[in-house]
């Protein structure tokens, strides 16, 4: 069975770039300290622990939640004005890591995290500019992809808002050339 992904409509495609309109979604997120790779791993573990049953469902019992893709991360602050190219650098060494929850859940039916570091919130419909790439997602490569996306957005007259998000769709054992990665920037 395929892994569920957030629902979106492609508004425009140009080479490795897309403009997308995402439907509302619910995310489970955590804020973690450290370098990008370490923070990604720690954030993934905290949210995976939540979806694998460290939660309390409305029934009062723990409930396993299906894994979705992608796993996304962004610098900890959501209020950075992006007027010049930026990279996936953290703010005060904090990174926001999140999973999109399966569409079958609402805020009322989704189990509550037992770990206070894991938060649930709803994201309204949002448009994103996206660049797709394969391979590893080291800081230099992500910075390069982010710069390319910002330059493309500038040529289209699109003003970014928020911070870039790195979205990874594959498990770590996937061969690098088969990996699907994206940098996404709301506009």
TrEMBL record:
InterPro entries: Reg_factor_effector_dom_sf, SOUL_heme-bd. It comes from the Bacteria. Pfam families: SOUL. This is Heme-binding protein. It comes from Corallincola spongiicola. The lineage of its organism: Bacteria, Pseudomonadati, Pseudomonadota, Gammaproteobacteria, Alteromonadales.
């Amino acid at each position: 069975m395929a892994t569920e992904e957030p629902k979106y409509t492609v508004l425009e495609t140009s080479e490795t770039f897309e403009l997308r309109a995402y439907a509302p979604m619910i995310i489970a997120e955590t804020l973690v300290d450290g370098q990008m790779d370490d923070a990604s791993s720690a954030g993934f573990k905290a949210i995976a622990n939540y979806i694998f049953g460290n939660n309390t469902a409305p029934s009062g019992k723990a409930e396993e939640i299906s894994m979705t893709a992608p796993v996304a991360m962004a610098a900890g602050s959501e209020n950075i004005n992006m007027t010049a190219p930026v990279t996936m650098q953290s703010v005060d060494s904090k990174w926001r890591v999140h999973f999109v929850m399966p569409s079958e859940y609402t805020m009322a039916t989704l189990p509550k995290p037992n770990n206070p570091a894991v938060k649930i919130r709803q994201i309204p419909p949002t448009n994103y500019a996206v660049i797709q790439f394969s391979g590893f997602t080291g800081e230099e490569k992500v910075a390069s992809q982010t710069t390319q996306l910002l330059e493309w957005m500038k040529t289209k007259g699109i003003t970014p808002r928020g911070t870039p998000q790195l979205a990874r769709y594959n498990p770590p054992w996937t061969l690098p050339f088969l990996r699907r990665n994206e940098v996404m920037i709301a506009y």
